[in-house]
Known about the structure:
- By secondary structure, the chain is α+β, with helices and mostly antiparallel strands.
- The chain folds into two domains: 1-62, no CATH class; 65-154, no CATH class.
- The protein has helices spanning 2-7, 13-21, 23-62, 69-78, 85-94, 107-111, 139-153, and strands at 67-68, 115-123, 129-137.
- The longest helix has 40 residues, at 23-62.
- The radius of gyration is 27 Å and the shape is rod-shaped.
Amino acid sequence: LPTIRKHGAYLTPDTIEKALSDPDFIIGLATKLKAEQSLRIQAEAKIQQQKPLVEFAEICMQSDKSIKIRELAHSLTTHGIKIGERKLYDRLRTWGMICQKSTEPTQRASEQGLFEVVTGVKQKPDGSPFTWRTTYVTMKGQSYIANRLKKELV
């Protein structure tokens, strides 16, 4: 590091000798350095472009449970993909992942492991049983939906 600070580069004695005796060698070093800097700039630009999606993926990986579609829409919105619950349902229906006049997933989407349905029984005030079903998006489904929305909205 002191040599780099003092001279702006670190060259071994053999490299210095080769650079002084062969001008093509120093030109080659400069060309390689320029190419590496160009690749670094491109990589940094790609990282900035993918930052919202990476943040969302990190949140999905932290969550070890499925979430409701409403929560997914909110999470997507806070991470740069502007979509509300109703528009998300419409998009999922368009993609054939949710049944048309329902909030339940299609058989294909369930078999792919993108959704799960939780069923329970509650008691109505009159004492009769009431069966409820809630659709949850799995971690795999969250990632799939986020990636697909990102591709469509870009």
